[in-house]
Amino acid sequence: MRMIAGKQHKPKAAKLHGLLQELLKLGVSPNVGDFFPFLQWADFFGYKKKVVKLTREIDGLLQGLVDEHRRNKYGFEKEDTMISHLLRLQESEAQYYTDEIIKGIVQDMLLGGINTEFITLEWSMAHLLNNLNTLQKSKSELDFHIGHGRLLDETDLPRLHYVQNVISETLRLNPTVPLLIPHISSDRCNVLGYNIPKGTILLVNV
């Protein structure tokens, strides 16, 4: 949030985090209309209403951040935040940097930054607690290179080989996202006996 808006915005960040979590839950919950398109009009369990309500609230919060930067015009010209950079670009190339595009970029950044880190931290702690020998080796390395007088800093990472291996192994065992970026077949092909037509979108399960 500091990188995007220049300060923490703790109340807004907490509310936005909650809304994005709800949206993610809805994104993975089954919707009858997705499986049977002819039933979409029925909106079983109020799925569409919930999505529309959530997206409006998220949009309102993000628009508030953009407007706050815009009101502080001379401030954002000096600021080195993502929103301030995008608003400067909006002044010169308005058609490419509309408020909707800026809000979309901000939302993508927040979604990518919220879940991936929490999920990786949870899994790494779970694995360490289930492998006490690995936990002890990680702790020894941290004690040796960092000590107890200060917090770990990014500049310390090149010396923490074992801890880096723990992180890499956690990401291998528990990827932060279930699917890779969608691929598309450039030509007709056959994979393990399956005929794949040209232009097929392929979702790879990590």
Summarize the structure.
This protein has 206 residues and is mainly α.
Give the helices and strands, then pairings.
Blueprint: H1 2-5, H2 10-28, H3 32-35, H4 47-71, H5 73-78, H6 82-92, H7 99-130, H8 132-145, H9 161-173, E1 183-184, E2 189-191, E3 194-196, E4 201-202
Antiparallel strand pairs: 1-4, 2-3
General description of the model:
This protein is mostly helical. The chain has helices spanning 2-5, 10-28, 32-35, 47-71, 73-78, 82-92, 99-130, 132-145, 161-173; strands spanning 183-184, 189-191, 194-196, 201-202. The protein folds into three domains: 1-113, no CATH class; 131-174, no CATH class; 175-205, no CATH class. Helices cover 62% and strands 5% of the residues. The strands form two sheets. Strands 1-4 form a two-stranded antiparallel sheet. Helix 4 (47-71) packs across helix 7 (99-130) and helix 7 (99-130) crosses helix 9. It is found in: Membrane.
Characterize the biggest β-sheet.
2 strands, antiparallel
Rg, alpha carbons: 22 Å
**Beta-strand level of the residues, as a percent range?**
under 5%
Helix content: 55-70%
Main location: membrane
Membrane topology: Single-pass membrane protein
GO molecular function, one term: monooxygenase activity
Organism: Gossypium gossypioides
Note the main attributes of this structure.
206 residues; mainly alpha; 3 domains; two-stranded antiparallel sheet; two-stranded antiparallel ribbon; 4 strands; 5% strand; Cyt_P450_E_grp-I
